Structure formats: C-alpha cells, structure tokens
Amino acid sequence: MRRKIGKPLRDKRGFTLIESVLGVLLFALVMTVVAA
C-alpha cells in the first residue's frame, strides 16, 4: 500500500509546476473577466 501511495505523491510533485502555471492562467482569466 505504501508503494501505491508513494507513486501518486511523486506524480503530484512532478505536476506541481504545471498546476501552478494553470492556476496563474485561470487567475489571469478571472481578473480579465472581472475587469471587463
């Protein structure tokens, strides 16, 4: 079970950069919509 839990943790760490970039893009889109 620990091995199965260890793999998703590594995947999450690997996608942290992608998630952060997507978060920034979504935030920018929300700000543009609110400004408009």
TrEMBL record:
**Top-level division of the source organism's lineage:** Bacteria
Key words, A-Z: Membrane, Transmembrane, Transmembrane helix
| Transmembrane regions | 15-35
Q: What is this protein called?
A: Type II secretion system protein
Q: Which organism is it from?
A: Anaerotruncus massiliensis
